[in-house]
């Protein structure tokens, strides 16, 4: 294995889980973290990383792979900051939830060499809670890990094929899409569910506030539907901003679907909606 040193910029849920998963999968090289001083101290004390630095340029020095595991806006900033200073032999990759704007920025920074320098990716794993304290070594097990290649196959990038192999050892399932298709699919499959959960919880808050009755009568359905509403705004602000067109389209069509349901609460069309929903759910789990 030629990957002997990995830097993870951002030691939150995803970055911290990645470090733990790498260790569990048998990676015996050096793991370097980059985050706030107190996060680095905690991660080092817990054995999540070997060392860390608050400066991303310093943290990236000497690493074979640098993983950008910050919110999307910070990923874009880090590409601009690290791109000119890390050597061509270092693979930059990310775990951001949107890909098109990230890939565009990498192409602006690296030019024609973008395909050999940067590997955009998105592990389809997460939770409604964020932070290193929620990191889990098994977070990626059985989860798709999407790669949106730039200008060719991963073999063009130093360490890329080896990194994808490491991802498989974490228990993740590598899949490949172009960035534009990824962002449209993810708007519907991830970002829309988040907005629906947020809107539902917000509507309940506006309607019932501190009324204890809603909590007393709450069943599993409401708990399941509002689980994502516990997600933090700072991460989602960047996700929404970098996929707003796709998400706006998904929200509009969802609003139309809700209107159709409202207008057919006592009509035969309601059964058709349930039948269609049942088919989708069955196919999703097959």
Automatic annotation (TrEMBL):
Residues 4-286 form the Prephenate/arogenate dehydrogenase domain. The keyword Oxidoreductase applies. It comes from the Bacteria. GO terms for biological process: tyrosine biosynthetic process. Its EC number is 1.3.1.12. InterPro entries: 6-PGluconate_DH-like_C_sf, NAD(P)-bd_dom_sf, PDH_C, PDH_N, Preph/Arog_dehydrog, Prephen_DH. Keywords: Oxidoreductase. The keyword Oxidoreductase applies. Pfam families: PDH_C (PF20463), PDH_N (PF02153). GO terms for molecular function: NAD+ binding; prephenate dehydrogenase (NAD+) activity; prephenate dehydrogenase (NADP+) activity. This is Prephenate dehydrogenase. It comes from Koribacter versatilis (strain Ellin345).
């Amino acid at each position: 294995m030629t990957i002997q040193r990995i830097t993870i910029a951002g030691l939150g849920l995803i970055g911290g889980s990645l470090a733990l998963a790498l260790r569990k999968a048998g990676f015996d090289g050096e793991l370097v973290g980059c985050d706030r001083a107190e996060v680095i101290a905690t991660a080092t004390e817990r054995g999540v990383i070997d060392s860390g630095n608050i400066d991303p340029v310093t943290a990236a020095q000497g690493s074979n792979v640098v993983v950008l595991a910050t919110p999307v806006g910070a990923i874009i900033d880090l590409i601009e900051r690290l791109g000119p200073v890390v050597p061509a032999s270092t693979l930059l990759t990310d775990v951001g939830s949107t890909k098109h704007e990230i890939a565009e920025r990498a192409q602006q920074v690296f030019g024609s060499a973008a395909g050999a320098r940067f590997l955009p990716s998105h592990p389809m794993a997460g939770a409604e809670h964020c932070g290193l304290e929620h990191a889990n070594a098994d977070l990626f097990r059985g989860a798709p890990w999407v790669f949106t290649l730039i200008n060719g196959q991963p073999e063009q990038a130093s360490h890329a094929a080896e990194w994808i192999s490491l991802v498989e050892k974490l228990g993740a399932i590598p899949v490949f899409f172009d960035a534009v298709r990824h962002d449209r699919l993810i708007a519907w499959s991830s970002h829309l569910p988040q907005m629906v959960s947020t809107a539902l919880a917000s509507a309940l808050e506006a309607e019932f506030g501190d009324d204890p009755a809603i909590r007393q009568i709450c069943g599993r359905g409401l708990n399941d539907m509002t689980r994502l509403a516990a997600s933090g705004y700072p991460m989602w602000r960047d996700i929404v901003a970098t996929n707003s067109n796709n998400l706006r389209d998904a929200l509009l069509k969802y609003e139309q679907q809700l209107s159709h349901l409202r207008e057919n609460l006592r009509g035969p069309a309601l059964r058709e909606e349930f039948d269609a929903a049942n088919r989708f759910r069955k196919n999703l789990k097959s």
